[in-house]
Amino acid sequence: ENIMPMSIALLGNSSVATIPTLLDLILKNKIKGHKIIKDDIIVFASVGAGMNINAMVYKM
Fold first, then answer.
1. Distance in angstroms between the alpha carbons of the first and the last residue of the chain
2. Tens digits of residue pLDDT in 19-41
3. For residue 60, what is the DSSP state?
4. What per-residue string of b and e applies to 26-56 under the rule 16 or more CB within 10 Å gives b?
5. Close Cβ partners of 19 (under 8 Å, ≥ 6 residues apart)
6. Rounded to an integer, what distance in angstroms lies between the CA atom of residue 35 and that of residue 20?
7. What is the predicted pLDDT for the residue at 16?
8. Which backbone phi and psi does 26 adopt, to 5 degrees?
9. What's the pTM?
10. 23 touches 35 (CB < 8 A)
């Protein structure tokens, strides 16, 4: 069972745009088996080529 959603099979490697793109897909119910509801706490983290490192905690 998948724990976290992934978009690479659908979109390929979208680098630093992965997090906002994936959030948009989940909010539009385009990623099967994943949904976000009010008051969910979400942790976003990504590492890209070079020095691209991103992390964020967000409450919906």
1. 24
2. 888 899 999 998 888 889 999 99
3. -
4. beeeebeeeeeeeeeeeeeeeeeeeeeeeee
5. 44, 46, 54, 56
6. 15
7. 72
8. -70, -45
9. 0.70
10. no
